[in-house]
């Protein structure tokens, strides 16, 4: 009776959470329909930092600031996931010529000591200048105000929190089921006990591996499902484990409902979506023609097609805009046929190697403002632009993108 009651209660909770996901999606659609549809500015009127906030939230803004610090020659990648000052003196721009977010990172980066790259990204995300940038995007009608989104986000986060608690209980249950299966009397004792003990010892590693490959709560629940499925035959398929496997399947079905209804619903308006579409069209030269601006006007020729270095006086501009739209996680992936490729963008190849050197801690699933960014973090393997991996004594030293 206890197993039946737990299963019935969990299923009812699943249905309530799914209903909340559907209801909040409907409320979100009504908010979108009542918001601005046509942007008051074009993509060329927004800075890379504003584009980064619009495309990926506060952490993406921090990634853009870190990219500018690297391209300006004031920071290098030192080891995996670490950033340090350049060891060799070179001509670098003054800190006053950098953006406020980048100046903050420059002040936080000490001399003679490397610090984690994700710590710098978090520092830029939490700066006071972020608030001013947010208010500008809201005044332009590209983001909704927190007051307008509060009811939807509160209900959505509460439903996801309940689902995460159920998933955490499943993770603990998988470990406990392995312990119970080990202590159960059986003949012969040897090989089955050793296999279960090895599975229990490997469980933390499975959780870590699933976190790196899948990320977040879904990765942990997936590892728990694998362990429970492996323990069930050894325990001769008791009703508790069979019911637990069914609840795990239901959990992933509920997660599919969460993703299909929009994931973590962000505050970006349809006008903000239009600006991002215009910016991505500028980034991808495969587009046959450039879309019109916010008032139906055609953008000037210098903003159409391939981003030429002569179009912008600052050589770091195209690379920073690419970072804002793609993020470090996408930059770590090798260029392919899918997605914006941005060939000929000055400094982009350097940023790809730098993003890989910063590791999965930078550019992981977004948990900040815009949200809805989940999935597999990019690869952390790093190679220098010239080929071999750098040694500790001779760290990777950037050169300026105008030489690319």
From TrEMBL:
<feature type="transmembrane region" description="Helical">
    <location>
        <begin position="241"/>
        <end position="258"/>
    </location>
</feature>
<keyword id="KW-0472">Membrane</keyword>
<dbReference type="InterPro" id="IPR026467">
    <property type="entry name" value="Ser/Gly_Cys_C_dom"/>
</dbReference>
<feature type="compositionally biased region" description="Basic and acidic residues">
    <location>
        <begin position="299"/>
        <end position="315"/>
    </location>
</feature>
<feature type="region of interest" description="Disordered">
    <location>
        <begin position="280"/>
        <end position="319"/>
    </location>
</feature>
<feature type="compositionally biased region" description="Basic residues">
    <location>
        <begin position="394"/>
        <end position="404"/>
    </location>
</feature>
<feature type="transmembrane region" description="Helical">
    <location>
        <begin position="158"/>
        <end position="182"/>
    </location>
</feature>
<protein>
    <recommendedName>
        <fullName>TIGR04222 domain-containing membrane protein</fullName>
    </recommendedName>
</protein>
<feature type="region of interest" description="Disordered">
    <location>
        <begin position="381"/>
        <end position="404"/>
    </location>
</feature>
<keyword id="KW-1133">Transmembrane helix</keyword>
<feature type="transmembrane region" description="Helical">
    <location>
        <begin position="213"/>
        <end position="235"/>
    </location>
</feature>
<keyword id="KW-0812">Transmembrane</keyword>
<feature type="compositionally biased region" description="Low complexity">
    <location>
        <begin position="286"/>
        <end position="296"/>
    </location>
</feature>
<feature type="transmembrane region" description="Helical">
    <location>
        <begin position="6"/>
        <end position="24"/>
    </location>
</feature>
<feature type="transmembrane region" description="Helical">
    <location>
        <begin position="188"/>
        <end position="206"/>
    </location>
</feature>
